[in-house]
Specification:
Blueprint lengths: L3 H12 L3 E4 L9 H13 L4 E4 L2 E4 L1 E3 L5 E3 L3 H11 L4 E3 L1 H8 L8 E6 L4 E4 L5 E6 L10 H13 L6 H11 L4 H5 L7 H10 L2
Parallel strand pairs: 7-9
Antiparallel strand pairs: 1-3, 2-3, 4-5, 6-7, 8-9
Helix pairs in contact: 4-5
Length: 201
């Protein structure tokens, strides 16, 4: 008869390296307390890593450059939490700039807007992911690029967008049909609508 540890390991191995999970993903393997203890044992032995309280990862291993264990990206962790909590999230502020490539700086605390519970997750690295409750309108975007551009440009400010940034955004827009972006115009401030429309010309 397989132990809880073996059942969990077989499941995560089947899903592949990079899988993020919590005890909630193994409720059919035993009592909650037993599952938590099994995850603790597996983390202590190095089979899995603890990303933050209650969340673990079966990490990818880099054998080419000798980096070793590769921790999951902020976006992967945030998306897992959103999926687990059945919530929607939107990256905002300086992180939206980073995701788009408009900035190389990764903020110490990544901020997402959400329709789920507001909270702050502290990662093992000391950095954090913060979820801020927001109005439904901010989560209604149909297109991811339109969404990211809106929050990135809000962070920059109407009078602070440089010519270089405009050119960069114009190049991003070349890969997205204008009619698709236009569907989200009603969710954008007027100045962002006008800027994006001009960059398509």
């Amino acid at each position: 008869m397989q132990s809880i540890d073996d059942k969990i390991y077989n499941k995560i191995k089947k899903c592949g390296r990079g899988m993020i999970f919590s005890s909630n993903d193994f409720t059919n393997f035993g009592e909650p307390k037993s599952v938590l203890k099994a995850l603790e044992r597996m983390a202590n032995s190095g089979v899995i890593i603890r990303v933050t309280r209650g969340i673990y990862c079966y990490p990818k291993i880099d054998k080419v450059l000798g980096v070793g264990v590769i921790y999951p990206a902020f976006e992967e962790i945030a998306q897992y939490i959103a999926k687990r909590d059945k919530a929607r999230i939107v990256p905002t502020g300086s992180y939206a700039l980073n995701v788009l490539g408009l900035s190389t700086q990764v903020p110490a605390n990544i901020v997402y807007l959400t329709d789920g519970s507001p909270r702050k997750i502290t990662l093992k690295s000391g950095r954090g992911i913060k979820f801020i409750k927001t109005a439904p309108k901010n989560l209604a975007f149909k297109n991811r690029l339109a969404m990211l551009l809106t929050f990135a440009l809000k962070e920059i400010g109407e009078n602070n967008v440089t010519g270089e940034q405009k050119q960069y955004i114009a190049n991003l827009l070349k890969n997205e049909d204008k009619s698709v972006i236009e569907k989200d115009y009603s969710l954008m401030p007027n100045w962002i609508q006008l800027l994006i429309s001009k960059l398509y010309e």
